[in-house]
Amino acid sequence: MIDLLRRWANSSVFLGCVSIAGVALLWQLAVTIFPIPSYLLPSPLEIGSVMVSRFELQTTHALVTLREILLGFALAVLIGVPLAVGITFVPVFEKLFYPILVATQAIPKVAVAPLFLVWFGFGEAPKVAMATVIAVFPIIIDTAVGLRAIDPDMVRLAKSMRAGSLKTFWKVRLPIALPSIFAGLKMAMTFAVIGAVVGEFVAGQSGLGYLIQAATGSLQTEVAFASIVYLSFIGIVLFFIVEAFERFFVPWHRSTDRLY
């Protein structure tokens, strides 16, 4: 029992909760001691009260944002992985599309968000498109890096055992590239959250981004902070889900060792 408690006390989950609780306590003390208006900086107790009293409203908007995030992430994977494979194995493909890809990432996404509204109209489509555009870049880059990181001797060994190109890809290249692919997926998941919220800021009629914008416009800062807490929770949970898949598919790699 003592060993179990000791392991729990040293776990990242417990220490993370302790750090969050410490920040909340200092925050509560600061707004209590100093005369800070609640419309500028609400206390953690006020934010928690709003999360309880408006649970149904927050949850409804959170589910909308969650759907946009998941759809954007899924499209980013479906687009990014094949593009990375093409960039890796087809030199002409790389020369044609890689400069365009880098150029599109240099453009601030907030600047093109109104264009998505023009192209896709109001509704879910522009938010999903924004999440996809922001999330696809790390998937392409990390997947391409992983596929190119293989030792040439391993490819020659596979060919010496009469393995064709497709079999070499599935049995050699892809397993070695999985750690890099999952690194890109974890980044892409967090970027998809940002993309969905940016889309909701510009063209939202529902979702947590829309709720934050509406709340700040009416000086309901505690509602905006509560929505931010929901967004943080969604992002953390989705990140750990991707990490759980990584630990399942590549348990042998050091990338599955926790850094936190």
* Name of the CATH class of the largest domain: Mainly Alpha
Inertia-based shape: elongated
Separation of termini? 24 Å
Fill in the CATH topology of the largest domain.
MetI-like fold
Give the averaged pLDDT, no decimals. 81
Order of helices and strands: HHHHHHHHHHH
Indicate the radius of gyration in whole angstroms: 22 Å
Number of strands: 0
Q: How does CATH name the architecture of the largest domain?
A: Orthogonal Bundle
Residue fraction in strands: under 5%
User: Helical segment tally?
Assistant: 11
How many discrete domains? 2
- Let me know the largest β-sheet: none
**CATH homologous superfamily placement of the largest domain:** MetI-like
- Helical content class: over 70%
Which blocks of ≥5 consecutive residues have pLDDT under 50?
none
**What structural class is derived from the secondary structure elements?**
mainly alpha
